[in-house]
Structure formats: C-alpha cells, structure tokens
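Worked Example 4.2. Consider the chain below.
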Amino acid sequence: RFEDSPFTNLRKGLLADWDFEKSLDDQSGNVAPAQLHGGATHVFGKGIVLGEDQFAHTRFSDSAVDLPASKTISAWATLKDLTVEGGALMSCEEHTDASAPRQFEAIAFAAEASNRWTAGSESDARTETSETWMSGASVVDEAAGVKVLISVVYDYDDTSNSNTITMYRNG
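Applying the procedure from the previous section yields the following structure tokens:
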C-alpha cells in the first residue's frame, strides 16, 4: 500500500501493518498472520468482527524482535455499541520471561472512563488518566457505526527515563 504513495519511506522502522479489510496477513512480513479466537470472524471488506471475549492475536515471525520504547500504535475501528466497557482495540505486548508480568501498551476503549479512548498499559504504568489529558482526542463524539482512526504515540526520553503519550483521533 505504501509503494505507490509519497509516504514510501514510512516503511522504515515499521514493525507491522495489517489491512484487515483485505486479509489477516501482515503486510510488512515481520508478523505471522492474525489468528482469531473466541468466535471472532473476518469479513472481507469490513475487517475483523469482534464481540465479547473475542480477539485476534499474532506473533512476530522473529522472536528476537524487541518493541522500541518510542512507538506509534494506530488502528481503525467502528464501534457498534458505545456502551461497552474495558476493551482494547490494538495492543503491543512483550513477554520475554515466563516469571515476569506481561508488559503492554494498548489503545483501549472505556477502560478508565465511559465513552473515552485511553492509552492503556499493565497496571496503568503508562496510562494517563488526568481529566486534562482525557478531554480532547479521547472523548468519543462520533455516533455508533462511524469509522474512526485512533493513534497513540509513545515518545520515550532516554534522559528523563519517561514517556510522553499523545493520542490522536482522525488526525
């Protein structure tokens, strides 16, 4: 999809790229095809259709891939029910040691507050929940059934050992 666009060099550093409207395959070649669980279905032209306790899961083809501290997670979604609570649209998870807790970052919906997107993480380690942060892009003002693009940017600063998290909706 990038080859015929002015954004060709966006592929540099890309870890995964799915177009679930077409297939369950990762377009970058870094990640195995998505596997559906709990009765989730793939509908050509629509994407992955999920209900309660349903999800898609995939793994990097090379188990030695480390997720960078600075990253952007983006995904399109169409919510048919805005009253759902506590679901993740997309997440990146690292689990290298069976005795250690899983570490993840996610685009979550209604995990911290109703009708709001948040940048979720294990035990809220990298989750911003302040009212100031949660105003703006996180508030859902579209109607059910409207397609929306959600992006969360994690910008890690080595000097201060901290993340700046910025969320974008349709932008």
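Residues 30 and 62 are 7 Å apart (CA to CA). The first strand starts at residue 35 and ends at 37. Compare this with Example 4.1 before moving on.
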